[in-house]
Amino acid sequence: MSSAWKVAYADFVTAMMAFFLLLWILNTVPQDTKAGLAAYFTGERNFDSSSTSPVSNNPFIQNTNKIDTRDFKISEVEKSHYAIAQKLKQMVMADAVPQNSSGISADDVGVQLHVNSDVMFKAGSVDLLPEGEKVLQSVYAILSEYNLYLVVRGHADSQEARPPYSSCWELSGARAAAMVHYLADKGIKPTRMRGVSYGDTRPLQPGIDEKSRSRNRRVEFFFHRPEVMSYSVVY
Fold first, then answer.
1. Which domain holds residue 23?
2. What is the model's pTM?
């Protein structure tokens, strides 16, 4: 009993050593790297960046070019997320993807680019517009460079469908399929891609007027690692 205090004291000293070691590590890591990592490991990386500037309002995307893996140990998964996000950011800033109609976000599984379908397709159809083809060329470039899988998600608003599509489900599904076909025709293996139709079941806004409905009309390109293809979260 008389020596019990020694155990408690030893635990206290160990904890203090770990604390001062943590302070030393934090002091040696550059501020930009800490900011980038903080953005990744907080909910900020899930910020919906589809407003007027998809880059300036998203801390995760802002800091993708500030991470130096030599200064801090991060996993291969996290490094790949930063690489993909940086590539998407470059495409947005180069206007290969329309800035005012797109957004980039990320979660623990992958990185997502979403684009308003009004700039991708002719109204009520699966016919690609020139801007839509530019977006798909950018998506193709990423899939060609990285060993990633892709889920293409089609979304429509409740009033968008028109013949030959009798519902928003059919329209959003046809658009997702058309984009997967486009990428497959360019040489991307079909086994690396999935097309999903959501219709109007996952709106970003209530859809009470044309402005809010236009935000709900979108397509999403979700890039993720091969091993999570079976996860329900990617759909």
1. 4-234
2. 0.68
